[in-house]
């Protein structure tokens, strides 16, 4: 009996090992673009889903990363709702906003936000564009968005408001060309955030997790600032010095919050 069970046991063991290997492959980061670390692609996917989960992004908005090996290229998803983005949806673009290998896939109209900021800011490695509901009121009012607490300390560097109408007249409000993208990038200047009148905001950073962190806390700060203003009197904002010091500390410990956020959007473990 033991001898007859041997092949069965061996087959079961082999099948189990193959299944485990297949599951491990399914859970490993996918790398759809040659020469790009799969972790970069995974960060774009994760960042998109995190901001959608928090309601900072809905069916619109996008997250990108500069190509780690070619500074004249960047990576972002095909035109798709952020919560639905997967690794297979990530595409490569040049700094004129042209898809390198389109294969018939639709692309975002506002990819020029990303291409022109990467052109203008060599230090930027990631760009996020949102239509944050908390931020929009600050794009159309005379009240400046300013940091009210340490997690949004980067706002102490300034959050300029860019108005598309001043340079381009009455448009559909979208950054749909290189010329419009260049004007937006000029308004951003050396700041971490720029607000778009009646539209939303753009945040930038040295990594995807930094730009995502700033996008989320720009929205949170806007809501808290509005609450503070509603209480009456002038809020006691962070100073430029406090902002610089707190922002430096936040960048050191950012993995703590990033790893927590990743758990929010991680797929359920296989049973």
Describe this protein's structure.
The structure is a single chain. By secondary structure, the chain is of the alpha+beta class. It folds into two domains: 1-30; 38-265, L-fuculose-1-phosphate Aldolase (3-Layer(aba) Sandwich). It is built from nine helices and seven strands. It has helices spanning 2-27, 38-53, 111-120, 136-139, 164-168, 178-188, 208-231, 240-252, 254-265; strands at residues 62-66, 73-77, 90-94, 126-130, 161-162, 193-196, 200-205. Strands 3-2-1-4-7-6-5 form a seven-stranded mixed beta sheet, sandwiched between helices.
**Beginning-to-end CA distance, first to last residue:** 32 Å
The CATH architecture of the largest domain can be given as 3-Layer(aba) Sandwich
Tell me the radius of gyration: 22 Å
Portion in strands? 5-15%
H/E series, N to C? HHEEEHEHEHHEEHHH
Quick one: CATH superfamily of the largest domain? Class II aldolase/adducin N-terminal domain
Strand order of the largest sheet: 3-2-1-4-7-6-5
Overall pLDDT, averaged? Answer: 90
Q: What's the count of strands?
A: 7
What's the CATH topology label of the largest domain?
A: L-fuculose-1-phosphate Aldolase
CATH class value of the largest domain: Alpha Beta
Main sheet specs: 7 strands, mixed
Gross morphology: globular
- In the predicted model, the low-confidence regions spanning at least 5 consecutive residues are 1-5, 7-29
The helix content is: 40-55%
Helix and strand content put the structural class at: alpha+beta
Number of domains: 2
Helical segment count:
9
């Amino acid at each position: 009996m033991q001898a007859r069970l041997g092949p069965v046991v061996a087959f079961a063991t082999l099948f189990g090992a193959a299944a485990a290997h297949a599951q491990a492959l399914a859970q490993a980061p996918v790398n759809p673009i040659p020469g790009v670390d799969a972790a970069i692609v995974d960060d774009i996917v994760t960042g998109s889903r995190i901001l959608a989960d928090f309601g900072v992004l809905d069916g619109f908005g996008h997250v990108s990363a500069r190509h780690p090996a070619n500074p004249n290229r960047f990576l972002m998803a095909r035109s798709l709702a952020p919560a639905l983005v997967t690794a297979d949806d990530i595409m490569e673009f040049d700094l004129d906003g042209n898809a390198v290998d389109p294969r018939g896939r639709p692309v975002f109209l506002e990819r020029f936000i990303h291409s022109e900021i990467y052109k203008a800011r060599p230090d930027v490695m990631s760009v996020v564009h949102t239509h944050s509901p908390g931020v929009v009121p600050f794009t159309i009012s005379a009240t400046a968005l300013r940091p009210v607490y340490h997690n949004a300390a980067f706002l102490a560097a300034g959050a300029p408001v860019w108005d598309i109408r001043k340079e381009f007249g009455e448009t559909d409000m979208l950054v749909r060309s290189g010329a419009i993208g260049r004007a937006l990038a000029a308004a951003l200047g050396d700041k971490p955030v720029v607000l778009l009148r009646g539209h939303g905001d753009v945040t930038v950073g040295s990594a995807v997790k930094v730009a995502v962190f700033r996008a989320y806390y720009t929205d949170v700060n806007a809501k808290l600032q509005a609450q503070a203003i509603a209480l009456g009197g002038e809020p006691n904002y962070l100073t430029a010095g406090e902002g610089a010091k707190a922002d430096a500390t936040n960048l050191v410990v950012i993995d703590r919050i990033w790893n927590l956020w990743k758990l929010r959007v991680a797929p359920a473990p296989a049973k």
